[in-house]
Structures are given as structure tokens and as C-alpha cells.
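Data availability excerpt. The first of two example chains:
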Amino acid sequence: MSAQAALCFDAVSVKQGDRWIVRSVSFEIAAGEIVALAGPNGAGKTTLLRVASRVLAASEGSVRVQGRALDAWSRREFAQRVAVVPQDANIAFPFSAAEVVLMGRTPYLGPMGFESALDLEKAREAMARVGIEALADRSMLELSGGERQLVLVARALVQEPDVLLLDEPTAHLDLAHRMAVLEQVTEFARRGGAVLIISHDLGLAARSCQRLALLAGGELRACGPPRELLNRTILRDVFGVDAEVFETPDGSIAVVARGITRPAGSAKT
């Protein structure tokens, strides 16, 4: 494992009670790279993302950001380096969408905690980039699941991190907003950011990422370019499905499941 990778998982294991949720997972993401983490439900994908975001501690192994262990960063430093887009945020107070996006600037505020004109402008720009300027004054409690997800994406972008962690960021989005988010993720990586994105949409992952990391049963089954990994043998092993993989007219990859062969992830390579 490279000490200078933007994000590095080194033999990470997570145990809850007497059950191992994740076992000895190792892979890394370079600056400028997008890696999609995929696998069946319960494979350990969100657990790994929670470890990387310091919400959950690894039982064994370690995660490093830019060569430094997670606990070597202060909370403020870490928030300036790593931004997280969860599947949904439990926001019980009626903050407006603009207020939630502006929270992404918190790691940069001075001792008095007041936002500057620059912070406000960055928040407006982030909302415009994902197409939610019209939601600025709306309460988060009034928004749909997809609209809330776009607010969380804008909040992460305005944080200006080096590493972006996304858990199913397009799951509730319509086609236009899904493309807007993926364009922003791609642009973030183009500017040198590192991205880890959890996705159940293998075709979408193949279109937007350089590598896939496939989990099943808490273990890393394969990691590599989508065109190498998306084949019937690996899909049968990891997802327990018989699937067809073919190239679309625009050169991207599509995966169509034909039937279930066994419980996902039950076989090991």
C-alpha cells in the first residue's frame, strides 16, 4: 500500500459483537481517481465508508488519508480534507437548504464563527452546480428524498475537500439531477480529488469510475477496471446472479441480470 495515496484502507476489519462485518479489506485511491464500491446488500460497503469518515472505528487494520492515520487529524483538519454524502441525513430542525449547504464552510470559519461574503458565494455556486438554487429558502423538512440528497451533495462540494465519500448519492434522483451530480463528481476528480462512491448501479459505476472494488460477505473479492471485472463469472460469484454484460452504442458498459443463481456472495474465490 502506498503511504501517499489520498485514501488507503490497510487490512481493515470491523467486528460487531461476535460477528465480523468486514474482514481484512485493503485497497487505495489515488488523487484524481474515482473508485466505486459495489456488492450485495450487507456486504460491508457502508461500514467501510463509516470507518473512513471516522464515524466507526476499525477493529483491526487502519485507514489513512494522505498518508496520515485518521486519528492524527484534528476534527477541523479532517473536515477540511474529507467530505461525506450519506444516503440521507436525519435533520430534525427546519434549517433551510441554503443553511445546510453553508454548514459545509464550518471548517473554515474564524473564531467568531461568522460566514464571510466569500462563504455565501461559494454556497450559492455549489447549489447552482447541482441545480437546486430554487430550493435555497425551503425547509429541509419539506424537501423530497432526492432534493435532500442534492442539498447534501452541495454541502460536500462547498466543503472543498481532497477526498469525497458518497453513499448511493444518486439513488433518489431523476435522470437530469443524476447526471448533474456525476458531472460534479467527475470534475472534482479531474481537479485532483479522490472519490469513493458506493453504488448498486454497476452500469453507472462503470461509466464514471476508473476502478471497481467488489465486496461480498465482508471481504474484497476483486478490485480493478470495470471492463475487467464486469463479467458473468465475477457477477455470479459476488452478486449471485446470471447476468449479461454488453457494450452500449456510446461505448459504455451495461449489465442486465437474467436470474438468481444463489444467495449473493456465498461463494468464495
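And the second chain:
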Amino acid sequence: MESEKANYPVQRMARLLGVSRSGFYAWRRRCESASPARMAKRAELDAMVRRAYADSTGIYGAPRVQAVLARNGTGIDRKTVAASMRRQGLEGISPRRFRPVAPIGEVRVHSIPDLVARKWDTGELNAVWISDITYLRTGEGWVYLCAVRDACSRRVIGWAMDSAQTTSLVERALRMAYVLRGYDPAGVVFHADRGAQYTSSQLNAACSQLGIRQSVGRTGVCWDNAMQESFWSTLKTEFYDRRRWATRQEAIRETGCWIEEFYNRSRLHSALGYTTPIEHEQLLASNKAQPA
């Protein structure tokens, strides 16, 4: 059939020989997949996929591996990348399903409004900063991490870690963000949950001094700070769950490196069109600098 398909229709030959057309085409695919040229091309693709996966420290799935290859000039569709990863036993890390706590009644603990209403990204840098505190286990006990991110670029612009989750921890992270930006943020909204550290008089005084407007979500409604919760999911799944630290200092050092060297500068963010947070900020700055 292969040698005569230029002279006779495949459908007619299949009928006369008592075989199926699908069987003929399946045979052809098997022959093509076993050809030396195709095998060499597949080996080359597998090597590129394996390299991109290894460069991500083993966390990227097919969408981000495809984005890495595209950035390097290799246009491969996502299904082909996924098939290559399956062949090689490579598997990305996916966050655990987020299960929100049941909302509880509203309790006015501080006269701070919700200035965000879940609309964190306004398309401009330094419009909304979001923050929260999480905890990491070490051989010496818990260490607490406070992070401040720009809701537009998703970049971590301020962070602090300590053995206690106090208002001073939040203030250190906030002041780091303020200094990093290098100028008056002109009334940026600083959004968080209603934790005692964020509704304290100490933080209110610090925000007033820096010209920052405070914003908090409703009590017990996790969705009001969901963007920051998403960041904790990324940090825990892709970084923390794969580490064991003997001391708090070791945890602080490695977490700082992950934030500054990997998350801000190397990790491709799907919400940013598979660019990094710093690349996204540079793109926004260049577009703003161009004349109208």
C-alpha cells in the first residue's frame, strides 16, 4: 500500500486487501517515529526540555518549560513538551489545592478600610503593595517570614524574618520596600489581613510617617488577601517543602536567596505572560518612557 498509494486511493486498497485505513496510517506513524532522523530530533528535544527543567531546580511543568524554550528561540507546542517530559519521567511541582477557612463574623478591630476590594493589580507599579506573614520550621523552632510585594509586578520588594511574628517584623519589611523603591511612593496602598501586627498603632504610625495608606480585608475572609496567599503556596510548594534546615539562620539565608535570586529574577510568572517580576517592571518602565 505504501508503494502504490501514489497510483491508487488508500481507501480502495484497504477495502480490497481487507484491512483498515487507520491501521495503515498507524503503521506509517510507527515507521516514521522509528526513523533515525526522527529519533535524533526527539533526542535533541528531550535534551532541551531536560535542561530547562533542571535549570528550574525541578519545579517547572510543561507550560513553563515551553515558555523557557520559546525565550531561547525554540518554538515547540505545549503538548510536545508534555510528551517529552512524560518520556523522561520529569514532573513539575503543583501547589496543593487551597482550602479557605470558613468566614466568621465581622469584628471591627481597627478603623482601617478595604481600599483594594480584591482588585490588586491596577496596571501600575507602586499603586498597591500586599503583605502577609507565614512560618517556616527549622531545627531550632519556627522562623516567621513577612513579605511585601508589588501587586502589579508580583515582585517581592521587602521582606524580613525573625523568631517572633511582631509588628516590628512587618515594619522592617515595609521599610525595606520603601527604601528599595528609592522615592516617595505617593500614597501607595498597603493591603493585608486584619492580623494584630497590621492593625497595631505602631504600624499605623510607621505608615503615616511614610505617606502610605493602610488597607485591610474583612475578618476571616481569606479571599480578601488571596494574591499574597497564592505567593505563600508557591513558596511552600516549590521551595520550603523541599528543604530541611537545622538553624534559623540557615533558613533566613536560603529563603533570602530564593526570593532575590530565583523568584524575582528567574521564575517565569504565568500571570505576567511568562516573564519574571523584574522583567515585567522593566517592560512597564520602557513603555511608560516611550512618547505617546
